[in-house]
Amino acid sequence: MQRNCSDPKSIFGDFDTLHACYDEFGGSPSNSTFARLVNACVNDYCNSPFPWIGGCAAWQGPTGRNFAVRETAFFLSRFTYFDSPAACEGVVGDPSSDIAGPGVYTSYMIQMAFVLFLWFLIQVSSAIIKISRHLRLPERPVLRAWRHRFPTGARLLHRIFHRHHAVLKHTLIEFHEAQCFFLIAAQLAILIAQGDAAVLGSYTLRSALQNMTTSYLVSTIGILPVVIAMWSLQMAHESCVCTMLLSVTTVALSEAAMYKSKGLSVRGQMATVDYRGWPASCGGHAPPLIYCGLATEGTGPIAFPSAFLKASNPICLTIFGVTVLLWQCGGSSFSKWVREEWL
Protein backbone atom coordinates (compact mmCIF):
# COMPACT_ATOMS: atom_id res chain seq x y z
CA MET A 1 0.00 0.00 0.00
CA GLN A 2 2.89 2.34 0.77
CA ARG A 3 4.31 1.84 -2.72
CA ASN A 4 1.00 2.66 -4.41
CA CYS A 5 0.47 5.78 -2.34
CA SER A 6 3.86 7.05 -3.44
CA ASP A 7 3.15 6.69 -7.13
CA PRO A 8 1.05 9.42 -8.85
CA LYS A 9 -0.11 6.98 -11.51
CA SER A 10 -1.61 4.77 -8.83
CA ILE A 11 -2.97 7.56 -6.61
CA PHE A 12 -4.82 9.46 -9.32
CA GLY A 13 -5.73 6.47 -11.45
CA ASP A 14 -9.04 6.05 -9.64
CA PHE A 15 -10.84 7.59 -6.71
CA ASP A 16 -10.83 4.40 -4.64
CA THR A 17 -7.02 4.45 -4.44
CA LEU A 18 -7.02 8.16 -3.57
CA HIS A 19 -9.56 7.50 -0.84
CA ALA A 20 -7.63 4.52 0.55
CA CYS A 21 -4.39 6.49 0.60
CA TYR A 22 -6.07 9.36 2.38
CA ASP A 23 -7.45 6.99 5.02
CA GLU A 24 -3.94 5.66 5.55
CA PHE A 25 -2.12 8.99 5.59
CA GLY A 26 -4.93 11.34 6.57
CA GLY A 27 -3.52 11.89 10.03
CA SER A 28 0.06 12.32 8.86
CA PRO A 29 1.86 15.68 8.80
CA SER A 30 1.34 17.96 5.83
CA ASN A 31 4.85 17.22 4.60
CA SER A 32 4.11 13.51 4.09
CA THR A 33 4.81 12.01 0.69
CA PHE A 34 1.13 11.54 -0.05
CA ALA A 35 0.24 15.16 0.82
CA ARG A 36 3.11 16.52 -1.28
CA LEU A 37 2.05 14.44 -4.27
CA VAL A 38 -1.57 15.60 -4.08
CA ASN A 39 -0.59 19.25 -3.63
CA ALA A 40 1.89 19.05 -6.50
CA CYS A 41 -0.73 17.58 -8.81
CA VAL A 42 -3.34 20.19 -7.88
CA ASN A 43 -0.84 23.03 -8.12
CA ASP A 44 0.43 22.00 -11.56
CA TYR A 45 -3.12 21.64 -12.84
CA CYS A 46 -4.15 25.02 -11.43
CA ASN A 47 -1.37 26.67 -13.41
CA SER A 48 -3.34 25.76 -16.55
CA PRO A 49 -6.90 24.63 -15.74
CA PHE A 50 -8.77 22.51 -18.26
CA PRO A 51 -11.93 24.38 -19.41
CA TRP A 52 -14.24 21.35 -19.19
CA ILE A 53 -13.30 20.88 -15.53
CA GLY A 54 -12.48 24.39 -14.34
CA GLY A 55 -11.69 25.08 -10.70
CA CYS A 56 -8.75 26.78 -8.98
CA ALA A 57 -10.63 30.08 -8.71
CA ALA A 58 -9.23 30.71 -5.22
CA TRP A 59 -6.04 28.62 -5.47
CA GLN A 60 -2.87 30.47 -4.43
CA GLY A 61 -0.47 27.56 -4.25
CA PRO A 62 -0.02 24.62 -1.87
CA THR A 63 -0.20 25.61 1.79
CA GLY A 64 0.24 22.29 3.54
CA ARG A 65 -2.33 19.48 3.60
CA ASN A 66 -5.30 21.69 2.69
CA PHE A 67 -7.47 18.91 1.29
CA ALA A 68 -9.62 16.09 2.57
CA VAL A 69 -11.74 13.17 1.38
CA ARG A 70 -15.16 13.31 2.98
CA GLU A 71 -18.50 11.53 2.85
CA THR A 72 -21.87 13.23 2.63
CA ALA A 73 -25.47 12.71 1.50
CA PHE A 74 -27.10 14.55 -1.34
CA PHE A 75 -30.81 14.00 -1.97
CA LEU A 76 -30.55 10.58 -3.62
CA SER A 77 -27.53 8.82 -2.13
CA ARG A 78 -24.39 9.03 -0.05
CA PHE A 79 -21.01 9.49 -1.70
CA THR A 80 -17.41 10.41 -0.98
CA TYR A 81 -15.72 13.40 -2.56
CA PHE A 82 -12.48 15.38 -2.69
CA ASP A 83 -12.61 18.57 -0.62
CA SER A 84 -10.25 21.47 -1.16
CA PRO A 85 -12.11 24.78 -0.87
CA ALA A 86 -9.52 26.83 -2.72
CA ALA A 87 -8.95 24.35 -5.55
CA CYS A 88 -12.57 23.28 -5.93
CA GLU A 89 -13.80 26.83 -6.26
CA GLY A 90 -15.15 27.18 -9.80
CA VAL A 91 -15.22 23.51 -10.76
CA VAL A 92 -17.77 22.92 -13.51
CA GLY A 93 -20.99 21.57 -12.03
CA ASP A 94 -23.89 22.57 -14.25
CA PRO A 95 -26.37 19.91 -15.36
CA SER A 96 -26.66 19.04 -19.02
CA SER A 97 -28.84 21.48 -20.95
CA ASP A 98 -30.39 18.52 -22.78
CA ILE A 99 -32.30 17.52 -19.64
CA ALA A 100 -32.16 20.71 -17.58
CA GLY A 101 -32.36 23.52 -20.10
CA PRO A 102 -34.89 26.36 -19.72
CA GLY A 103 -37.04 24.82 -22.44
CA VAL A 104 -37.34 21.53 -20.54
CA TYR A 105 -38.71 23.08 -17.36
CA THR A 106 -40.85 25.53 -19.32
CA SER A 107 -42.49 22.74 -21.32
CA TYR A 108 -43.40 20.81 -18.17
CA MET A 109 -44.79 23.90 -16.49
CA ILE A 110 -46.85 24.72 -19.58
CA GLN A 111 -48.19 21.17 -19.68
CA MET A 112 -49.19 21.37 -16.05
CA ALA A 113 -50.83 24.79 -16.45
CA PHE A 114 -52.72 23.77 -19.59
CA VAL A 115 -54.02 20.53 -18.07
CA LEU A 116 -55.20 22.35 -14.94
CA PHE A 117 -56.81 25.06 -17.08
CA LEU A 118 -58.68 22.50 -19.17
CA TRP A 119 -59.73 20.66 -16.03
CA PHE A 120 -61.10 23.91 -14.59
CA LEU A 121 -63.05 24.74 -17.78
CA ILE A 122 -64.50 21.24 -17.94
CA GLN A 123 -65.68 21.50 -14.33
CA VAL A 124 -67.22 24.93 -14.95
CA SER A 125 -69.02 23.86 -18.13
CA SER A 126 -70.28 20.69 -16.42
CA ALA A 127 -71.64 22.74 -13.53
CA ILE A 128 -73.38 25.18 -15.88
CA ILE A 129 -74.98 22.30 -17.79
CA LYS A 130 -76.38 20.86 -14.56
CA ILE A 131 -77.66 24.25 -13.40
CA SER A 132 -79.22 25.09 -16.77
CA ARG A 133 -81.47 22.02 -16.53
CA HIS A 134 -83.27 23.61 -13.61
CA LEU A 135 -83.35 27.20 -14.86
CA ARG A 136 -86.45 28.89 -16.15
CA LEU A 137 -85.20 31.96 -17.95
CA PRO A 138 -87.80 34.52 -19.17
CA GLU A 139 -88.49 34.48 -22.89
CA ARG A 140 -89.77 37.25 -25.06
CA PRO A 141 -93.32 36.65 -26.30
CA VAL A 142 -92.19 36.88 -29.90
CA LEU A 143 -89.87 33.91 -29.38
CA ARG A 144 -92.34 31.59 -27.65
CA ALA A 145 -93.77 30.41 -30.95
CA TRP A 146 -90.32 29.32 -32.05
CA ARG A 147 -89.33 27.42 -28.90
CA HIS A 148 -90.04 24.02 -30.46
CA ARG A 149 -87.97 24.74 -33.56
CA PHE A 150 -85.20 26.81 -32.03
CA PRO A 151 -83.95 26.54 -28.42
CA THR A 152 -84.28 29.66 -26.33
CA GLY A 153 -83.52 30.65 -22.77
CA ALA A 154 -82.29 27.81 -20.58
CA ARG A 155 -82.45 25.32 -23.45
CA LEU A 156 -80.14 27.50 -25.52
CA LEU A 157 -77.74 27.90 -22.59
CA HIS A 158 -77.74 24.14 -22.04
CA ARG A 159 -77.03 23.41 -25.70
CA ILE A 160 -74.20 25.93 -25.96
CA PHE A 161 -72.34 24.70 -22.91
CA HIS A 162 -73.02 21.07 -23.76
CA ARG A 163 -71.19 21.62 -27.04
CA HIS A 164 -68.41 23.53 -25.32
CA HIS A 165 -68.13 20.74 -22.78
CA ALA A 166 -67.69 18.14 -25.52
CA VAL A 167 -65.07 20.28 -27.30
CA LEU A 168 -63.12 20.77 -24.06
CA LYS A 169 -63.08 17.04 -23.34
CA HIS A 170 -61.89 16.29 -26.86
CA THR A 171 -59.18 18.93 -26.53
CA LEU A 172 -58.00 17.40 -23.27
CA ILE A 173 -57.85 13.94 -24.88
CA GLU A 174 -55.77 15.22 -27.79
CA PHE A 175 -53.43 17.18 -25.55
CA HIS A 176 -53.07 14.29 -23.13
CA GLU A 177 -52.06 11.91 -25.91
CA ALA A 178 -49.57 14.44 -27.25
CA GLN A 179 -47.97 14.97 -23.84
CA CYS A 180 -47.76 11.20 -23.32
CA PHE A 181 -45.77 10.78 -26.55
CA PHE A 182 -43.54 13.68 -25.52
CA LEU A 183 -42.90 12.18 -22.09
CA ILE A 184 -42.25 8.70 -23.49
CA ALA A 185 -39.55 10.15 -25.74
CA ALA A 186 -38.07 12.17 -22.86
CA GLN A 187 -37.97 9.21 -20.46
CA LEU A 188 -36.42 6.93 -23.09
CA ALA A 189 -33.73 9.56 -23.64
CA ILE A 190 -33.04 9.69 -19.90
CA LEU A 191 -32.82 5.90 -19.66
CA ILE A 192 -30.38 5.82 -22.58
CA ALA A 193 -28.29 8.59 -21.03
CA GLN A 194 -28.17 6.75 -17.70
CA GLY A 195 -26.73 3.73 -19.48
CA ASP A 196 -23.92 5.70 -21.14
CA ALA A 197 -22.12 8.38 -19.13
CA ALA A 198 -20.68 9.97 -22.27
CA VAL A 199 -24.15 11.01 -23.49
CA LEU A 200 -24.56 13.80 -20.92
CA GLY A 201 -20.84 14.56 -20.66
CA SER A 202 -20.57 14.62 -16.85
CA TYR A 203 -16.82 15.09 -16.53
CA THR A 204 -16.94 16.07 -12.86
CA LEU A 205 -18.64 14.65 -9.80
CA ARG A 206 -20.63 17.86 -9.48
CA SER A 207 -22.07 17.53 -12.98
CA ALA A 208 -22.90 13.86 -12.39
CA LEU A 209 -24.77 14.75 -9.19
CA GLN A 210 -26.67 17.54 -10.88
CA ASN A 211 -27.61 15.34 -13.85
CA MET A 212 -28.78 12.52 -11.59
CA THR A 213 -30.91 14.89 -9.53
CA THR A 214 -32.30 16.59 -12.62
CA SER A 215 -33.21 13.24 -14.18
CA TYR A 216 -35.08 12.34 -11.01
CA LEU A 217 -36.83 15.72 -11.03
CA VAL A 218 -37.86 15.50 -14.69
CA SER A 219 -39.20 11.98 -14.22
CA THR A 220 -41.13 13.02 -11.10
CA ILE A 221 -42.75 16.20 -12.39
CA GLY A 222 -43.47 14.54 -15.73
CA ILE A 223 -45.94 12.20 -14.04
CA LEU A 224 -48.02 15.02 -12.53
CA PRO A 225 -49.78 16.36 -15.68
CA VAL A 226 -50.33 12.82 -16.97
CA VAL A 227 -52.05 11.69 -13.76
CA ILE A 228 -54.15 14.87 -13.55
CA ALA A 229 -55.28 14.44 -17.16
CA MET A 230 -56.05 10.74 -16.57
CA TRP A 231 -58.16 11.57 -13.55
CA SER A 232 -60.01 14.36 -15.35
CA LEU A 233 -60.81 12.14 -18.32
CA GLN A 234 -61.98 9.32 -16.06
CA MET A 235 -64.26 11.64 -14.14
CA ALA A 236 -65.64 12.90 -17.47
CA HIS A 237 -66.14 9.29 -18.65
CA GLU A 238 -63.84 9.82 -21.62
CA SER A 239 -61.13 7.22 -20.93
CA CYS A 240 -60.79 4.88 -23.89
CA VAL A 241 -58.55 1.82 -24.01
CA CYS A 242 -55.86 3.37 -26.23
CA THR A 243 -55.60 6.50 -24.10
CA MET A 244 -55.39 4.46 -20.90
CA LEU A 245 -52.71 2.13 -22.29
CA LEU A 246 -50.71 5.14 -23.48
CA SER A 247 -50.99 6.71 -20.03
CA VAL A 248 -49.91 3.53 -18.26
CA THR A 249 -46.87 3.22 -20.55
CA THR A 250 -45.90 6.82 -19.84
CA VAL A 251 -46.15 6.44 -16.08
CA ALA A 252 -44.28 3.11 -16.15
CA LEU A 253 -41.36 4.61 -18.10
CA SER A 254 -41.23 7.65 -15.82
CA GLU A 255 -41.13 5.44 -12.75
CA ALA A 256 -38.38 3.29 -14.29
CA ALA A 257 -36.25 6.35 -15.08
CA MET A 258 -36.86 7.82 -11.63
CA TYR A 259 -35.94 4.69 -9.68
CA LYS A 260 -32.93 4.05 -11.88
CA SER A 261 -31.71 7.56 -11.02
CA LYS A 262 -31.89 6.67 -7.33
CA GLY A 263 -29.91 3.45 -7.76
CA LEU A 264 -27.05 4.79 -9.85
CA SER A 265 -23.47 5.14 -8.66
CA VAL A 266 -22.48 8.80 -8.82
CA ARG A 267 -18.91 8.13 -9.98
CA GLY A 268 -20.26 5.60 -12.47
CA GLN A 269 -22.07 8.47 -14.20
CA MET A 270 -18.85 10.41 -14.77
CA ALA A 271 -17.52 10.40 -18.32
CA THR A 272 -13.81 9.98 -19.03
CA VAL A 273 -12.07 13.05 -20.43
CA ASP A 274 -10.11 12.10 -23.54
CA TYR A 275 -7.16 14.41 -22.91
CA ARG A 276 -3.44 13.66 -22.97
CA GLY A 277 -2.17 16.93 -21.55
CA TRP A 278 -2.63 16.22 -17.82
CA PRO A 279 0.34 17.24 -15.65
CA ALA A 280 3.08 14.65 -15.19
CA SER A 281 2.72 15.15 -11.44
CA CYS A 282 -0.78 13.67 -11.77
CA GLY A 283 0.62 10.53 -13.37
CA GLY A 284 -1.02 11.34 -16.68
CA HIS A 285 -4.48 11.21 -15.11
CA ALA A 286 -7.10 13.87 -14.40
CA PRO A 287 -6.50 15.80 -11.15
CA PRO A 288 -8.60 14.99 -8.06
CA LEU A 289 -10.62 18.15 -8.70
CA ILE A 290 -12.95 16.09 -10.88
CA TYR A 291 -14.15 14.52 -7.62
CA CYS A 292 -14.92 17.82 -5.88
CA GLY A 293 -18.24 17.87 -4.06
CA LEU A 294 -20.99 20.43 -4.43
CA ALA A 295 -20.20 24.04 -3.71
CA THR A 296 -22.90 24.05 -1.02
CA GLU A 297 -23.85 20.73 0.50
CA GLY A 298 -27.48 19.79 0.35
CA THR A 299 -28.31 22.07 -2.56
CA GLY A 300 -28.93 21.28 -6.17
CA PRO A 301 -30.56 22.49 -9.38
CA ILE A 302 -34.05 21.81 -8.11
CA ALA A 303 -36.30 24.58 -6.93
CA PHE A 304 -38.64 22.29 -5.05
CA PRO A 305 -37.94 20.92 -1.58
CA SER A 306 -36.77 17.34 -1.63
CA ALA A 307 -39.59 16.45 0.78
CA PHE A 308 -42.16 17.58 -1.81
CA LEU A 309 -40.51 15.52 -4.55
CA LYS A 310 -40.40 12.42 -2.38
CA ALA A 311 -44.02 12.83 -1.26
CA SER A 312 -45.51 13.75 -4.65
CA ASN A 313 -44.65 10.44 -6.30
CA PRO A 314 -46.60 8.20 -3.87
CA ILE A 315 -49.56 10.58 -4.11
CA CYS A 316 -49.45 10.49 -7.91
CA LEU A 317 -49.19 6.70 -7.93
CA THR A 318 -52.16 6.45 -5.58
CA ILE A 319 -54.30 8.64 -7.85
CA PHE A 320 -53.00 6.70 -10.83
CA GLY A 321 -53.95 3.36 -9.26
CA VAL A 322 -57.43 4.60 -8.32
CA THR A 323 -57.96 5.92 -11.85
CA VAL A 324 -56.96 2.60 -13.43
CA LEU A 325 -59.17 0.74 -10.96
CA LEU A 326 -62.17 2.96 -11.73
CA TRP A 327 -61.56 2.56 -15.43
CA GLN A 328 -61.28 -1.23 -15.13
CA CYS A 329 -64.48 -1.41 -13.08
CA GLY A 330 -66.32 0.89 -15.47
CA GLY A 331 -67.82 0.24 -18.84
CA SER A 332 -64.54 0.70 -20.74
CA SER A 333 -62.62 -2.11 -19.09
CA PHE A 334 -59.61 -3.64 -20.75
CA SER A 335 -61.03 -7.18 -20.61
CA LYS A 336 -64.23 -6.06 -22.34
CA TRP A 337 -62.23 -4.33 -25.05
CA VAL A 338 -60.13 -7.46 -25.66
CA ARG A 339 -63.22 -9.63 -25.91
CA GLU A 340 -64.95 -7.27 -28.32
CA GLU A 341 -61.97 -6.45 -30.53
CA TRP A 342 -59.88 -9.59 -30.55
CA LEU A 343 -61.99 -12.57 -29.46
Describe this structure in words.
The protein contains 13 helices and 2 strands; from the N terminus they run H-H-H-E-E-H-H-H-H-H-H-H-H-H-H. By secondary structure, the chain is mainly alpha-helical. It folds into 2 domains: 109 residues, no CATH class; 196 residues, no CATH class. A two-stranded antiparallel sheet has the order 1-2. Helix 6 runs parallel beside helix 10. The chain is elongated, with a radius of gyration of 29 Å. The termini are far apart. The C terminus is likely disordered. Keywords: Membrane, Transmembrane, Transmembrane helix.
Strand content: under 5%
Range of helix content: 55-70%
Largest sheet, in brief, is: 2 strands, antiparallel
Give the low-confidence spans: 297-304, 337-341
Count of helix runs: 13
Number of strands: 2
